[in-house]
Amino acid sequence: MITVKLNGKEKQAKEAITVAAFLMENGIDPYQTAAELNFEALNPQELPKTILKDGDILEVLRFVGGG
Amino acid sequence: MDSFERYSRQFMLKQTGIEGQEKIGQAKILVCGAGGLGSPVIAYLAAAGIGSIGICDFDTVNLSNLNRQFLYGYKDIGSKKAATAKDFIKNLNPETKITVFEEKLTAGNIDSVMKGYEIAIDAADNFDTRFLINAAAYRNGIPLISGAVCEFEGILTAVVPKESTACFQCVYPFKPADEKTFGIFGAVCGVIGSLQALETLKLILNLETLKNKLLIYDGLQNSFRIKELAKRKNCAVCG
Ligand SMILES: [Zn+2]
Questions:
Q1: CB distance A65–B125 less than 8 Å?
Q2: Which CATH fold would you assign to the domain B3-228?
Q3: Which residues of B touch A45 (CB under 8 A)?
Q4: Which domains, from first to last, does chain A contain?
Q5: Which of A32, A66, B30, B37 would staple B123 via disulfide (CB 3.0–4.6 Å)?
């Protein structure tokens, strides 16, 4: 297991999980979410390809762009 | 002194006074988008006595707009939004000068549309237009009050280029992979649009605004929280 900090809260996840899968496990739709891994913004297309490591810090914000 | 009575409840605020109301009366504000957010923004700014408002929207009114876009009524279906909004404001406050822009905002026209305005308001309905407005405001040194909604959520921030604050693309460096039409109650647009109007008035009055701060509203939880923003070193717009 690895520990990832998601919006400031520590969460457990299995090894070699992608950002997209980790978000889905935590009830967040990865396709509607802007993500920042260790303070670097991730391109939405990278979320299903990026593997999380123990101690990673993930900050997410839902895409809110309607008017 | 018709206007003294009209604005009497604003004069009573120590943050406004006669001097503040004069600033409001001289202000020139550009509102990009006359939809769900633009409706409360335009109505409250005109009601507050903003001297000049530019309304930018190329769209026409349709029936599904009317749950939230209260500048328009049933008889306006099919009419241009910007011109119809102007008619609404003429009745609400004839002292406010309205300029209508009915072209779609593009990289080619946005600088000339923004010219002469002292604050821009982002009330657009998609990320491409938001990125365009944010970049143009930054390039032209025009403060931007950016607000957005989706379902029960809303966000709001103030971007002040001359103070080198974080911009909208510092919040969202990338746009979503795809943008779907989402559900919304007009009341949620009302919350964020009203706050955009208030931030604009506060900026005019030199009061503290949401610079380097992102207000995040959740209408289901009844929560407002503030996330501190920092300029991104590699921001495509302000970095
Ligand atoms: Zn930026």
A1: yes
A2: Rossmann fold (3.40.50)
A3: 177
A4: 2-62 (3.10.20.30)
A5: B37
B98 residue type, one letter: I
Chain B neighbors of A63, CB-CB under 8 A: 127, 150, 172, 175-176, 179
In order of A58, A64, B35, B71, B195, the CA distances from B149 in angstroms are 23, 6, 12, 18, 12
Closest-CA distance of chain B to residue A62, Å: 9
Largest CA distance in chain A: 41
CB atoms closer than 10 angstroms to residue B121: 31
CA B238 to ligand 1 centroid distance, Å: 4
- Range B44-57 average pLDDT: 98
Return the residue matching tokens 């496990």.
Answer: A25
Q: Per-residue pLDDT tens for B56-80?
A: 999 999 999 999 999 999 999 999 9
The predicted structure's pLDDT at residue A22: 98
B173 and chain A in contact, CB less than 8 A: yes
Query: Which of A43, A44, A67 lies closest to B36 in CB terms?
Result: A67
Q: Where are the domains of chain B?
A: 3-228
Tokens describing residue B102:
């009915």
Q: Distance from the CA of B239 to the center of ligand 1, in angstroms?
A: 6
Q: Measured between alpha carbons, how far is B102 from B32 in angstroms, rounded to an integer? A: 11
Residue in A1, A23, A7, A3 with CA at minimum distance from that of residue A59: A7
- Tens digit of pLDDT per residue, chain A (67 long)? 999 999 999 999 999 999 999 999 999 999 999 999 999 999 999 999 999 999 999 999 999 999 9
